[in-house]
Write a structure and sequence with these properties.
three-stranded antiparallel β-sheet; alpha+beta; four-stranded mixed β-sheet; 3 domains; Endonuclease, Chain A; 273 residues
Length: 273
């Protein structure tokens, strides 16, 4: 068996025991370690020189990447992933994870001992218990929107109360975290909120009531995209809709003023047909 190819198949990092059980010769393993083509991570673990550094660090410390770190690595919308989160077995002794945040909770899905990265399902559950509700909701809705997890399958898992609450609120329609945050922040107004409502041949970010449209601009709203948005805004207004267009910065860093604009429009009845 080709050891290098087997290691590549396993993501570049693996337990030596698993490699030997798969048919890798111990002699070949020792030879490649001596030549530097394979390096020892810690006792019982080896890696290729160009292996994912985060996985190598996890294997070295006896933990697995998890929580929002896995969510970010899966391409989900994560408000802040600067701090590395890892998980350790509940029966583990002292773990030196450096500056990483360590989670000790029992996983809802069994962890493969050969993996250095948690399943997305386990990562989502830890996110629900680790992060504030709104942040967790953003991550869960992003996973549902990208169809990386199945809602019905998640519901059948033994979820802790925090994860059950997030799942109950999560919907698969938001294309970005902003489109999750805004409806969540406006639910107290007890008005119909329709994300991605299709109006005049295009979806709008959020339809409030019957006629109030909230559009949220990201960094891509420039050039031709911006011109198209302005044209669509004009068509909406001609059909009796009222459009409020705000930026990412306004939602993330100036929400009270955005909310005040929406409240003012609702007070004037601009959300009604």
């Amino acid at each position: 068996m080709n050891l290098i190819a087997e290691l590549r198949e396993r993501g570049g990092v693996a337990r030596t025991r698993s490699l030997i059980l798969a048919g890798v010769s111990p002699h070949v393993l020792r030879t490649l370690k001596a030549s530097g083509e394979v390096r020892t991570v810690r006792n019982g673990w080896v890696a290729l020189p160009d292996a994912d550094r985060m996985k190598v660090a996890a294997a070295k410390r006896g933990v697995v990447l998890s929580c929002i770190t896995v969510a970010a690595r899966c391409g989900l919308w994560v408000p802040d992933s600067s701090q590395v989160h890892v998980a350790a077995a509940s029966h583990s002794g002292r773990v030196d994870a450096g500056d990483a945040i360590v989670h000790w909770a029992r996983p809802v899905l069994p962890r493969n001992p050969d993996e250095c990265e948690d399943s997305l399902e386990n990562a989502l559950v830890l996110t629900a218990t680790c992060r504030p509700f709104e942040e967790a909701l953003v991550v869960w809705e992003s996973a549902l929107n990208k169809q990386l997890v199945d809602r019905a399958a998640l519901a059948r898992l033994p979820l802790p109360p925090a994860a059950t609450m997030v799942l109950d609120a999560a919907r698969p329609f938001a294309d970005s975290g902003l489109e999750t945050m805004v409806p969540h922040r406006l639910r107290w107004m007890k008005l119909p909120l329709t994300p991605q409502a299709w109006i005049l041949d295009r979806p709008v970010d959020l339809l409030i009531g019957e006629r109030l449209v909230l559009q949220i601009d990201g960094g891509h709203h420039v050039g031709a995209q911006r011109s198209s948005d302005i044209e669509h805004d004009a068509r909406l207004k001609l059909r009796g809709y009222h459009v409020i267009r705000v930026s990412y910065h306004q939602v993330m860093n100036g929400w009270p003023r955005v909310q005040a604009l929406i409240m003012d429009a609702v007070a004037q009845g601009l959300h009604l047909a």
